[in-house]
From TrEMBL:
Residues engaged in binding Mn(2+): 33, 221, 223, 258
Any GO molecular function: acetyl-CoA C-acetyltransferase activity
Name of the featured protein: 2-isopropylmalate synthase
Keyword set, alphabetical order: Amino-acid biosynthesis, Branched-chain amino acid biosynthesis, Cytoplasm, Leucine biosynthesis, Manganese, Metal-binding, Transferase
Stretches of the chain forming a coiled coil according to its record: none
Region feature (Regulatory domain): 413-531
Pathway the protein contributes to: Amino-acid biosynthesis; L-leucine biosynthesis; L-leucine from 3-methyl-2-oxobutanoate: step 1/4
Phylogenetic classification of the source organism: Bacteria, Pseudomonadati, Pseudomonadota, Betaproteobacteria, Burkholderiales
GO cellular component terms attached to this protein's record: cytosol
Keyword tRNA-binding appears in the UniProt entry: no
Cofactor(s) essential for the protein: Mn(2+)
PANTHER family with a match to the protein in the record: 2-ISOPROPYLMALATE SYNTHASE 1, CHLOROPLASTIC-RELATED (PTHR10277:SF9), HOMOCITRATE SYNTHASE-RELATED (PTHR10277)
């Protein structure tokens, strides 16, 4: 990383980030704001895998985490900073010395590193949360941005809860941050309160009123509490002149989530006639990224979700199908293949060889770490192909996710499962688990075969966790499909998700449950401050 000390009287944006007026910087915060969503916390390996995929997607900036929040986050940022070369890697930092130094240290190996420092500026947040006066917030802004700019060339400043801040005061804070060297100014709608036209005009007024506004790139960061995060972000771009959008894959994020990357990118691309701007995103990687994030976090994408939902390009009505066959643009405004949906859904079967499997992984944008990983995934593929005649893209992605999950330190692994259920009888299940190097067996009864199996696991796991979500999803439609199960567990205020897939949904449930239990056990190191 270029650590040249900056002259605080000038604030030229570092070259990589000077967006020409017709280029929109895409700042992805799936690994930071997205991860703050209860249950979406990820391991270091999972974050690294997603960061690699974000680089393939060609996002400009990857916000990899919040270095000062925990040892786990610090290390995740550092390993992402060491690996990613084409995207800028960013760490969040509160506006204090400890956070900023931790961010700089975590980013030290980065080819391009950015410190993103923030402080709240709304009367409510300053008085009730920070217990600081406006003058103290101004002082802290100055100290924080100046220090960050001494450590890196690329500094973003966010005024948390900007949209509910008093305009005159916000102008003073922003002017000061730019004077101290901030190269990007972010105007968050932290609580999702904005309305598109009002937010766009707010941003435009700020840019008109701040005297040194043209020395920074302006950015939008909108939450989705009223379902308007994407609309507000686009208004910030069109009306307000923002040239950076902060967003997450699948709109992942706290509460109702953040602005969805895929929707903003495809809106700007599909309506280039209106927006007159472009992004550098490789849109053909959108679907693979969406699936990776969904399978890693266990946050299922709703079927009617724009761009990446299973039905987003499905035409069920006869009139629509007839129109599409005559001319695609009668009912389609985007091409499914442009966002990564493949026309050829059945990909492989049990006669497919390793090369065909490897080629398909490549086409799906999946990169496994080594030949050994490919071999292990291929062995699983063969095993699945023996049980299921047609292997779909979704099956391949699920088994890769499972293969990746298996690489984490496993406290519990499923060795065998058998269960018996009959109408009118109480179902019973027997599981064999590998635990701390030895095999243990337990039998239990339950309401149904899934309940019995999970109770049998608990005989040995004794987790004391509460299940807050259990969902089953057919990966590819028919009854021959694999079931993908998501389990969400809560213990002592911590929430984790586990995902498992198998043609047998009882086995898929046991795998998902064990995946969540393994995360609960391994999570202790990840506990730390949250924004
Ligand atoms: O929503 C928000 O205000 C944030 C800031 C930390 C940028 O996430
Ligand atoms: Zn946010």
């Amino acid at each position: 990383m270029d650590n040249t000390t900056a002259d605080s009287s000038v604030a030229p944006a570092s070259e990589a980030f000077v967006a020409s007026t017709d280029t929109l910087v895409i700042f992805d915060t799936t690994l930071r704001d997205g991860e703050q969503s209860p249950g979406a916390s990820m391991t270091r390996e999972e974050k690294l895998r997603i960061a690699r995929q974000l680089e393939r997607l060609k996002v400009d900036v990857i916000e990899a985490g919040f270095a000062a929040s925990s040892r786990g986050d610090f290390e995740a940022i550092r390993s992402i900073a060491s690996t990613i070369k084409d995207s800028t890697v960013c760490s969040l930092a509160r506006a204090n010395e400890r956070d900023i130094r931790a961010a700089a240290e975590a980013l030290e190996p980065a080819a391009h590193g950015r410190i993103h420092t923030f402080i709240a500026t709304s009367p409510l947040h300053m008085e009730k949360k920070l217990r600081m006066t406006p003058e103290q917030v101004l002082d802290q802004t100055k100290i924080a941005v100046r220090l960050a700019r001494q450590l890196v060339n690329d500094v973003e400043f966010s005024a948390e809860d900007a949209y509910r801040s008093e305009e005159d005061f916000l102008c003073r804070v922003i002017e000061l941050a730019i004077a101290e060297g901030a190269t990007t100014i972010n105007i968050p709608d932290t609580v999702g309160y904005a309305i598109p036209e009002l937010y766009g005009n707010f941003l435009r007024r700020l840019r008109e009123r701040v005297p040194n506004a043209d020395r920074a790139i302006w950015s939008v960061h909108c939450h989705n509490d009223l379902g308007m995060a994407v609309a507000n972000s686009l208004a910030g771009v069109k009306i307000g002149g923002a040239r950076q959008v902060e967003c997450t894959i699948n709109g992942l994020g706290e509460r109702a989530g953040n602005c969805s990357l895929e929707e903003v990118v495809m809106a700007v691309r599909t309506r280039a006639d209106y927006f007159g701007i472009r992004t550098r995103i490789d849109t053909t990687q959108i679907l693979a990224t969406s699936r990776l994030v969904s399978q890693t976090t266990g946050f299922v994408v709703q079927p009617n979700k724009a761009i990446v939902g299973a039905n987003a390009f499905a035409h069920a009505s006869g009139i629509h199908q007839d129109g599409i066959m005559k001319a695609r643009d009668t009912y389609e405004i985007m091409r499914a293949e442009d966002v990564g949906w493949s026309a050829n859904k059945i990909v492989l079967g049990k006669l497919s060889g390793r090369n065909a499997f490897k080629q398909r992984l490549h086409e799906l944008g999946v990169q496994l770490d080594s030949e050994l990983d490919i071999n292990a995934a291929f062995a699983k593929f063969k095993d699945l192909a023996d049980r299921k005649s047609e292997i779909f893209d979704e099956d391949i992605l699920a088994l890769v996710t499972e293969e990746n999950a298996a690489k984490h330190p496993e406290h519990f692994a499923l060795v065998a499962l058998s269960q018996h259920s009959e109408m009118g009888e109480t179902p019973e299940a027997t599981v064999v688990l590998a635990m701390a190097g030895k095999e243990v067996t337990a039998t239990a009864q339950g309401n149904g075969p899934v309940d019995a199996s999970l109770k049998a696991i608990e005989v040995h796991a004794q987790s004391g966790a509460e299940m807050v979500l259990y969902s089953v999803n057919a990966i590819s439609g028919s009854t021959e499909s694999q079931g993908e199960v998501t389990v969400r567990l809560q213990r002592s205020g911590r929430i984790v998700n586990g995902v498992g897939a198998d043609p047998d949904i009882v086995v898929a449930s046991a795998k998902a449950y064990l995946c969540a239990l393994n995360k609960l056990v391994g999570q202790a190191e990840h506990i730390g401050a949250q924004v």
